[in-house]
Amino acid sequence: MQSCCTIHDPTAAVCRGAGEPLVMEEIQVAPPKIGEVRVKIICTSLCHGDISFWRSESGPFSFFPGIFGHEAAGIVESVGENVVEVKAGDLVLPVVQRNCGECRDCKFKGNACTKFPAASLNAMPRDGSSRFLDKDGQPLHHFLFASSFSEYTVVDMTHLVKISPEVPVDKACLLSCGVTTGVGATMKAAQIEEGSTVAIFGLGTVGLAVAEGARIRGASKIIGIDKNLEKFEIAKKFGVTDFVNPTSCGKDSVSQVIREMTDGGADYCFECVGSTSLIREAFDGSRQGCGKTVILGADLHGSPLSIHPLEILTGKSIMGATLGGIKPKQDIPHLAQKYLKKELRLDGFITHEVNFEDINKAFDLLLQGKSLRCIIWMDR
């Protein structure tokens, strides 16, 4: 169903300044334009990526005033012209990583879709404008092509994935970003082989999803590295076999400890925090000659990484992977099927649930290290 009408007075959690609590405001949501879809959000969740941008006071990563949120599940309300992939009533997930399925990159290696020129992260990708107005008629910034902290949002079709309605919406929500990033990285970016050794720096949602993916791939040893001792018991449920607390390594570096535990270095190291120093530790802890380090954490203002060419020449490698290197439209439905077949475990990632009006509680829980994923229900 196409729509030419603006939706008046839906509620959105608007952020007016860096680090400020989100405020419930009535807004206006314009109809979708060519290639766009208007989505009624059913539930959303809070990711560390939201926190990083929420804290950013200035520069290219400042999105104020704006509507955050990028991990969600919703129902198609209406579609713009030329949209044939979805229809009203379909269950869909917004995704940060574009996937048009037509450009060279979508058809071949990698997942860096080049359908549009470098698009602004705070507007619609085709025309750089906003579909949101506040109560005074002033535009609000979009966020990572999703803006899911709103009862209704508009998403470009290249940033939307249709998913089976058999998947419960709260579990589907997890596949929109964090879990897909971690599990996907083991399958696409790293392509872990059976019997491999794996080291994971940071046991948040993405790190635990790496562990789950490594378990599925048949890794023989999965080492979790985190300062939060409470995460170790949780991590066992996702396949982590060994643990390292960086504060208990004595005079040894974490990378030295990993090399000792793996008889020379882990086959695969994943950095899931977004720290240049941890990326270096992960690289140093990987195996000489074949070790691969995969960067999944995002540090918006990080310092440069220094690696001597000889370290690469010996066969070690390092790479980044947005959304785990997966192609959203073909790979996320595949992960959903794995969940339905009980091959992929999702339930353990949800530690808290709140109503939309209590969204700031979700921020508090994540900032205090008390939650993995807090599901935020729009209307319950």
Automatic annotation (TrEMBL):
Highest taxon in the source lineage: Eukaryota
Cofactor(s) required for function per UniProt: Zn(2+)
GO biological process: formaldehyde catabolic process
Domain spans labelled Alcohol dehydrogenase-like N-terminal: 35-164
Record has Zinc as a keyword: yes
UniProt domain Alcohol dehydrogenase-like C-terminal: residue ranges: 206-336
An MF annotation (GO) of this entry: zinc ion binding
Gene3D superfamilies: Medium-chain alcohol dehydrogenases, catalytic domain, NAD(P)-binding Rossmann-like Domain
Keyword Zinc: yes
Keyword tags: Metal-binding, Oxidoreductase, Zinc
InterPro entries tied to this protein: ADH-like_C, ADH-like_N, ADH_Zn_CS, GroES-like_sf, NAD(P)-bd_dom_sf
Similarity comment text for this entry: Belongs to the zinc-containing alcohol dehydrogenase family.
Name listed for the protein in its UniProt record: Alcohol dehydrogenase-like 1 isoform X1
Originating organism: Coffea arabica
Chain's gene name: LOC113715151
